[in-house]
Each structure stands twice: as C-alpha cells, then as structure tokens.
Design goal:
Layout lengths: L1 E7 L2 E9 L5 E4 L7 H23 L4 H15 L1 H15 L2 H29 L1 H24 L16 H4 L29 H14 L4 H20 L5 H39 L1
Antiparallel strand pairs: 1-2, 2-3
Helix pairs in contact: 1-5, 4-5, 4-7, 5-7, 5-9, 7-8, 7-9
Length: 281
Amino acid sequence: MHGGQGHQGGVAEVSSQLTTGGGSTVQLPRSGRFSRATVIELGTLVALFAAYTVIRAAQGTDVPAALAHARHIVDLEQWLFAHIELPLNQWLAGAAIVAVPACYFYAVFHYLATPLVLYRSWRVGGWIYRRGYWSIVIASAIALFIYARYPVAPPRLVTGLGSIDIMREFADYGWWGEAASAPRAIGDATNQYAAMPSLHFGWSLWCGIQMWSFTGLRWRIAAVVYPTLQILVVVATGNHFTLDVAGGAACVLVAFGLVTWARDVRRRGETTPAASAGAAR
C-alpha cells in the first residue's frame, strides 16, 4: 500500500492505492488532510458561490419580462400545468402535515446536501471528485448566464394561474417569509425571478449522480430518492414549473458531459504520442 498526491485539471488528488494479487489497483478513500491545492479549490468554490449569489440576486429588476416568460412556459406546458402541477400545488396547500415538511425540505436540503456530497466526493478523491467539482462549477455558471438573459417568475408569483405560494402560506412554521426559502429579514436581497433553470433540482441531480458513484446501497438509494423528492417539492410548492426542472437538469447534464469530454480529449492527447513513439521503435 502506498500513498500518492497529484494534481490534474486544477484538482488535487490525495489518495491511497492498494494493488491486489491480480495486479489490479483499487483506490482507497482520502485521509482527512487538506492539501494546499484543496484549500485553494474550496476557497475558489466559496468565492464562486458568493459571486453567484450576488450576481443572481441582482438580476431581478425586469419583472414584466419575467412574468411574460412564465406565461409563455405555461402556454408550452398546457396540459401538464393544468392537470399535474396546479392540482398538486392546490392539494399541498390543504395538507399541512405534508406541506410543512416540504417547506423545510425546500429551505434546507438545497444548501445542506450539496456541500456534504461535495465533501464526500473529495474524500473519495480521483475522477469522482474532479468530475463533481468542475461539473457543479460549470452548471452553476450556465445557470447564472440564463438568469441574466432570461428572467422567469415562479408560478406562485404569476397572478391568474391559481398557484398558491406554499412557503408563504406556512411561513409561521419556519424562518422564511414571502421570498421562498430566504429568511424574512433578507427577502428583498434575493431574486425571485430566477426560476429558470431550477438549480434546486439541478444541484439535487448533481448530488444524485455523485452519490450513485459512491460505495454502498444507501448511497444508491439516496441518489434516486433525493432528486425525486426535490422534483415533487419544487413543483408542489409553486416555486418552479416542470420546464424549470428540465432546465436545471440540462445545465447539470451538459456540465457533466463537458467534463467527461475534456477528460477523454486529454487522455487521447496523452496516448497518441506514446503510441507514435512505440510504432517508431
């Protein structure tokens, strides 16, 4: 058994490897030590998240456009909104025993699960961490660009649709007010017109993909259950249309695809010179 430390694609790898009798190599989880590169990566991620929060909050001034875009989404969804999303939202409004946990789920897990899964990915190390790190950065950047160019109001803020603001209806049970999951005191500092894409779902899908790569049946179960519940919650609470959810999924899947493509290109670039050198001997 031996330890190794490397740096590929801007991401540190601190892991151990075990060579089995058959000659295959098994990568073991990282130790709890933070390398200098890892500290820089995490600091960069925190800075990016802060910039994302500030810039996202600043893109909520064109309310007429956001409302118009939301109505356009309703026109596209038609039957789906009228027969699935709206009845689900109205049912939840009358079921406090389900609505209150749904509000807490919406307010908490988005900000709790994502860093926990990222930390677990770091502990696992290797490709799983590199893939997770860069994919969430890229997905968030894509979403931020869309927020700036295409504001969309959530169903709960569009008059005439019949959608009920579940978080507002049950605000007495938690810390949130009229601005979705934002605490009452800072609701005005958030952008409520950034519903497309839904990163509440997008980040939960990111968590699901990462957790599916972890060892253990419980991680696999969580990988399916968490994003599934998130879809139901974001739609039922009136915070997102189903197309917003699809947009969040697209951001994450495109990001994972780009990261995987970049890895494959790099591998081909590394193997081609070696193959050429072997043929020349």
